[in-house]
Amino acid sequence: MSKDSEHWDWHSVYPAPAKLNLFLHVVGRRADGYHLLQTVFRFLERGDRLRFSPRADRSIRLATPLAGVPPEHDLTVRAACLLQAEAACPQGVDIHLDKCLPLGGGLGGGSSDAATVLLALNHLWQLRLPRRRLQEIGLALGADVPVFVFGQNAFAEGVGETLQAVDLPPCCYLVLEPPVQVPTAAIFGAPELRRDTPAIAPQAWHPGFGANDLEAVACARFPSIAEHLACLSAFAPARMSGSGACVFAEFANRADADAALSRLSDRMRGWAAAGLDRHPLFALAD
Hints:
CATH architecture: 2-Layer Sandwich
Helix content: 25-40%
Order of helices and strands: EEEHEHHHEEEHHHEEHE
Distance between the termini: 6 Å
CATH class: Alpha Beta
CATH topology: Ribosomal Protein S5, domain 2
Number of domains: 1
Largest sheet: 6 strands, mixed
Strand content: 25-35%
């Protein structure tokens, strides 16, 4: 494990960065109903934050439960329980989650939180499970969890678990949060969703390529997504991330992104964030 991991301890605040899907194509569907995708994930400097407190027993408790989400269904608790069981770990933990990213926003907030739990507790509990095994545990929690454990911006295939690192240029993104929560299953289950976009070789992808095949379905069901896209498109090419609801545009620098944000309607919630080269916790796994 890298020496960069040595400054992370029980007193640290552990980041759970947002992600954007720079493009997202649905290229097929498996017999079990899962969709086959191609996408590029990019991490952002903005995200949720987690802290961990050791317990004298084996209990795992979320000290900051989310409204409407039973703790036993929360991805952070489920991630800790799976890790504890995998390693037969006798230790427990209290999890403190400072939620910044919107629910149902397409920014991977819950998946990122789960991955941060896996990375942080693997380190704090001194379990030393390899990154590949943590990715496999993460996949049991959701298709977006493995890329956060992988820790690098990535071209993803399959259901999102086949990952190849990509280098992306520095830039800043303006992200808008339409005031809706989009249920992912409803978008993927829509009969009109295109599921036959031709696949490409990973090396054929380049910044600006592709679209989001889920965008038309989400916009039809949630008009506010279409409204936010139209407003943002006045400043730069814009698209939706994941299954929505958040939309984004790329800018060369923070000043340009902030200038565009200042010209949008006050009723539109948004923020600017730089793209990251890799996950801030990358050093915590081998």
